[in-house]
Specification:
Distance between the termini: 41 Å
Order of helices and strands: HEHHEHEHHEHEHEHEHEHEHEH
Low-confidence stretches: 1-11
Strand content: 5-15%
Helix content: 25-40%
Number of helices: 13
Number of strands: 10
CATH topology of the largest domain: Oxidized Rhodanese, domain 1
Strand order of the largest sheet: 1-5-4-2-3
Number of domains: 2
Shape: globular
CATH architecture of the largest domain: 3-Layer(aba) Sandwich
Mean pLDDT: 92
Largest sheet: 5 strands, parallel
CATH class of the largest domain: Alpha Beta
Oligomer: single chain
């Protein structure tokens, strides 16, 4: 099953609709490598309670973050993770999860970093699927282990500290997707999240466009027209070089997805070191207040 066939009823190859997925659940639950559904959660209790039939689970905290280095998995670990779930490099992957697809988008970004082309997000994620009354199960599927051979890494999707430092005096646009109170330095982390930086504020020159501005009230993506207007109103144009960031890299992955995959921006990088790194750097420039907030 190639991408064109599998995404035939979606608005874009990067997104599939809940209706499309519901119509393909029989294919999802088959023990072949053509189409695999993956739930990516911070809290796997959600998956254990109920999930979309046929979905395998990835624990974002334990399996997509290094416990001490806070880095993405190396290629070998990434290969083992997906191969154990019946995935090959030719599989069509549909990702979804909690928190409006934060963690699924982060996994999507990692897959692009490792060269997996045929991957998409389920519009609306876990919440919309359940709230719209679609089928769920607590049965955990078992698929044959496959050989998964990632490519890359392809660094064009990833920003590092030195790239952000160069952006301070260059033409690159910085987009901070955190809450306004995080951006202006009032708080260090969203409510309920562990504080992870010594200082609050934002990278000088960054524009605050909160991640949730990409979504409708039901958690599905806004139309391309509305998303285009959103970023254009903040001076972020399609031809710009853009770096997006948040606190630990997952919320910014959703904005990276919108700019790169839905709107076709050609140069968008996710700074996954994020505020956890920048806010702890000795001597790093930091701005506070609500300048340019959106």
């Amino acid at each position: 099953m190639n991408a064109q066939q599998s995404h035939a009823q979606s608005e874009t190859d990067a997104v599939v609709t809940p209706t499309w997925l519901e119509n393909h659940l029989e294919t999802v639950t088959a023990d072949d490598a053509d189409l695999r559904l993956v739930e990516v959660d911070l809290n796997t209790e959600f998956y254990e309670r109920e999930h979309i039939p046929g979905a395998v689970c990835i624990d974002w905290r334990r399996q997509l973050q290094h416990a001490t280095r806070r880095d993405i998995p190396p290629k070998t670990a990434f290969a083992d993770l997906f191969g154990a779930r019946g995935v090959t490099e030719d599989s069509t992957l549909v990702l979804y999860g909690d928190n409006s697809n934060w963690f699924a988008a982060h996994c999507y970004w990692m897959l692009k970093y490792y060269g997996h082309d045929d991957v998409c997000l389920l519009d609306g994620g876990r919440r919309h699927w359940i709230e719209s009354g679609r089928p769920t199960t607590d049965r955990v599927p078992s698929y044959s282990t496959r050989s998964y051979r990632p490519a890359g890494p392809f660094e064009r999707v990833r920003a590092y500290r030195d790239g952000v430092e160069r952006a301070l005096s260059g033409p690159t646009e910085l987009v901070d997707v955190r809450l306004p109170d995080e951006y202006d330095g009032t708080i260090l982390a969203p409510p309920g999240m562990t504080e992870s930086a010594q200082r609050g504020g934002h990278i000088p020159g960054a524009t605050n466009i909160v991640w949730s501005a990409n979504l409708r009230s039901d958690g599905r993506f806004k139309s391309r027209e509305r998303l285009t207007e959103l970023y254009r109103a903040h001076g972020i144009e399609r031809g710009d070089d853009v770096i997006v960031y948040c606190r630990i890299g997952e919320r910014s992955s959703l904005t990276w997805f919108v700019l790169s995959e839905l709107l076709g921006y050609r140069s968008v990088r996710n700074y996954d070191g994020a505020w956890t790194e920048w806010g702890n750097l000795v001597g790093a420039p930091i701005a506070t207040g609500a300048e340019l907030s959106g």
